[in-house]
Amino acid sequence: MHSALFRMLELFDLTIADPKNRYRLRELCRAREVLCDFLVGDNAYHSTDVSLDHYFLQFVAASKHESILR
Question: What percent helix, strand, coil does the chain show, rounded to 5?
Fold first, then answer.
């Protein structure tokens, strides 16, 4: 589990550091914060696995829609 968590954080950090994502920084940083809070924190945001699944599935749908438009 620890290696998966570290890999998730590494991927978030690489995505945040990429200049092409400068307009998405707020959303990326918030998603990273909420996931960390849910997985290893006190869950101050009262996230659930269902609410996080719903949140991230919206990005999957958006990326599929965007790839169709290309």
Answer: 85, 0, 15
